[in-house]
Design a protein that fits this description.
elongated, mainly alpha, 2 strands, two-stranded antiparallel ribbon
């Protein structure tokens, strides 16, 4: 894949026209068209940085040095601010209180949850040892 194709794919995946991307980049549509057609292949660093911010991708991803966009796991500043403005649903308001009152017996815990460490499921014996250790540790703290 080329940078031209990557820019085109990213723009189209967001449903933007070349004009809309050009507006976000504060440049004319002809430049965007030239980038997408591969006429301009040596993009200025400030354009690469701006594109990576707009698309929330790494510059390496934009330059096709990798096909894994590390920012897929990190919210963009826009996504972060959007999440901060969302109100907590009423169903979660007392979540901590609810969770603090849950008291599952060892057997209930084993029946309801699958516990994994280092990619391997814990056996029933390992879970019981873990629970015993945690209870002992807590009793020493008290």
């Amino acid at each position: 894949m080329s940078i031209a194709q990557r820019i085109t794919d990213l723009r189209k995946s967001r449903g933007w026209s070349q004009d809309q991307l050009a507006e976000k980049l504060a440049m004319n549509r002809a430049n965007v068209s030239n980038y997408e057609r591969g006429i301009i292949t040596n993009l200025p660093s400030e354009v690469l940085l701006k594109l990576s911010e707009i698309f929330n991708v790494t510059v390496d991803y934009l330059l096709c040095k990798t096909d894994v966009n590390l920012y897929d796991w990190v919210p963009s500043p826009a996504e972060e601010s959007e999440n901060k403005t969302k109100e907590t649903p009423a169903s979660y308001e007392n979540e901590k209180e609810f969770l603090s009152k849950i008291d599952l017996s060892d057997d209930e815990l084993l029946a309801q949850f699958k516990l994994t460490v280092d990619g391997r499921d814990l056996t029933q014996k390992e879970v019981k040892k873990l629970l015993a250790f945690l209870r002992m540790e807590r009793s020493l703290e008290d």
